[in-house]
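Re: Re: token formats

Sure, here are both.
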Amino acid sequence: MDNKYSCYVFLADAPAQKEILTVFCEVKGHTKEEAHEKVTKELQLHKKERSYTLKYVGLINFPEVDQDVIDRQDELFEKYDAVWILNCSYNQK
């Protein structure tokens, strides 16, 4: 992960499966609406077994990133062009 990136951040929510994904889309070359479309497209292509509700979280800048995250980026993220997916899960109470 290049620490000079700014990204739009989305949550891809699939409550029925108790799954939520944190999805990043590079700001460079994309408006927020284009990023939303690009994230939707990548989820449909690569995560088609689930139906997600996409929620916009905001814009994040990466002025500093722990070296461990940089070193493990291929392990932590599914990368599709300008879209990076960080898999997470949550427990419903």
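Second one below.
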Amino acid sequence: MSRYKLLSWWSVVGGVLVAIIGVLHTAATPMIYKGALTKIPDKAAGIAYFFGVMGLYIIFSGWLMIYSSRGLGRSEQWAWMIALTNGACNMLAGAGAVIAGFRHSLV
């Protein structure tokens, strides 16, 4: 198996796993809201909104991984651009969420 085919396969598997995590993340939003409503009612809506939007972002990221996998198997430039941009956005969004969470705490 060539390294491009292996990369394509891992991109599909990783994308499916990421999309499933995103669906679970989004599906858990009402539970997060109910739990936050009992502990911190004034900030429950913000936490639930952040949690739900992040779940949708994770689903979209997994879809982009699956979408670019076919082109990665053929080593096409558009697929590399999508995959690398998706990875860079994930890295920046994760770091940005941590920084924003510490500066403007929802909790």
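The two ends are 49 Å apart (CA to CA). The chain has a mean pLDDT of 89.
- S.
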